[in-house]
Model the fold of this input.
Amino acid sequence: MSSNDLENLIDLMARLPGLGPRSARRAVLHLVRKRALLLTPLSDAMQNVAATARECLNCGNIGNSDICDICADDTRATGEICVVEDVADLWAMERAGVFKGRYHVLGGTLSALDGIGPEELSIPRLVDRVTSEAVSEVILALNATVDGQTTAHYIADQLEGQVTLTSLAQGVPIGGELDYLDEGTISAALRARKSI
Done:
């Protein structure tokens, strides 16, 4: 292995979210030291994923077939669609284990500054799914950012009168202390208050 190969691997690893050049260098050195235990199996797994991973034609999830396991699961509630920005959000919802319906991955949020409109996202496909799959509720599980809220309002306008629209509650997180929260979070929590 030449030093150019190592530098190339470090440069590629540094492009991953959460890794900078120093973290990438440490990770590569660790992988090389544990070549048989980590590097070779990691390389094999990455080749397999590169060859088989694909986007679900229905919801946009990542799997190894044209229709993901969630969409193919007949036990999932078909009347509910949870709309998320990206696959990482879908996986977070699945880890929580509380939603038993289907998903729809937008692929981002609307952003006039970045030139991202409804056609660059899968919003038209969502509107088609609501009609064709007899959906009764669309849950907007979008991030509480300006772009996320803009996207939620746009989707609500597109689906108005066709389906029940709900969104995730926003506000004080479990274990959160008011003194450490920003004004927007406190404001959202106060508006979404409920009786005890």
About this structure: Helices lie at 3-14, 21-33, 35-52, 69-72, 87-96, 123-132, 146-159, 183-191. The two ends are 64 Å apart (CA to CA).
